[in-house]
Write a structure and sequence with these properties.
432 residues; single chain; 6-stranded parallel sheet; alpha/beta; Rossmann fold; 2 domains; 13 strands; 36% helix
Length: 432
Amino acid sequence: MIEASQDQNWYYTMLPLWLWSSAARKSFNKIMKNLRKKKSNIKYICPTKKYAFLLHEPMMLNHYENVWKALGHSEFVIVLTEKFHVDENGEEKEGIPSFLNHITQEKYQTFDIQHIINSGIFFDYVVTNHPISGTSKSIKKTTKKDILKKLLNRIFIAFGRQPIWQYNVDIESLLPLQIGKKQIRYMYGADLSDAWSLMGWNEIYDIFLCHGVNDERIVKERFPGKTFIMGYPRYDDYFDSEIDLSSIKKEFYLSDQKKTLLWMPTLGGVGSSIPVYAKLIADLDDEFNVIVRPHPLSFVQEKDFIYELEKNNLKIDRNSTRNMNELFSASDLIIADYGGTPFSSIFIGKNLIFLDVPGADSMPINVDSSVLELKKHLPVFTPENIQNLPQFLNSQTSLDENKKMIDYLFEKYFGSTRGGGSARVAKFLKSL
């Protein structure tokens, strides 16, 4: 936020010099004097934050917040996409109220992307986990006339009014390019595949924040951007602080006399383990505490799968912005199929098994993926032998062997320090 004590001539650099006649300067000075009385809105005139985190889903709070805290409020803003609040059906997304309450409580500075576009604001760096929308790696040039209109829009927005001229988000250009000079990709899980995380849109990124040595190596082989190994900042609290499990135990009725299984099926359509295993996992509920955490987008895109879980009376975690350190800490075993969950489990050192989904290994998004490599090293249960899972869990030898393999895979895929990731990222970003 611009303070009144700063150089009063800063704003003259924002408009072409030919506009500044003596009368124009005098008039604009008067406007700025009045505007300084509205400090809550002056941020729109000249944003001073170096980094913008562009968010498309409330669940991204859990990925980024530890880094936000380490950076400090003065270094970044949050920019919300046009469809941040509503899903593809036009309904409010799960987790929106809790997200908005949280960022208000934490006093994070937040913009809607429409205001950023209308104001012609470009941040030095934009952080995203993927480009979110658009297909083109180029951005349309802005005319001098539009530059002036957008600068004037800033003044109107700062006065709490609607901008005079409306500029829509370009549906063709990749979204981060429309508000940032340079792009940072914050890797969204250590699972890599040609059909998703290694697609050609990665070429827009100047910097990749990688989880470990494996994704760093592969990114370096494919794309020209610089890399930095950050670990998993979202799991810092798992290692750095004592986690109170009382609320989790109460919420999911966890018995201290039973081991707790956390099943985390990915968003996978026909590749999801939910329709194949819902009844089979539910059958374990008498002997174990069972919690199911579907991918947050499954509640919108795979409602029939959610119904399958409900029909079998499974305990479902619906909190898209939950601090995952609580769930992981309360669990004795992670059950996964595909996606980033297996790598998260390995990073924190949790015992892990896979559920095999018939035909899913050959889906384009899974072919030659990092997850298939993991399945060569860890137990894989099928619909035919899932009844043997209790025997596995009750065998200390099996659990010890599993843990030993988890430690080996950590060194292979991460080779970094567990914990402290947010501080490393913040230090790196401040050095740019």
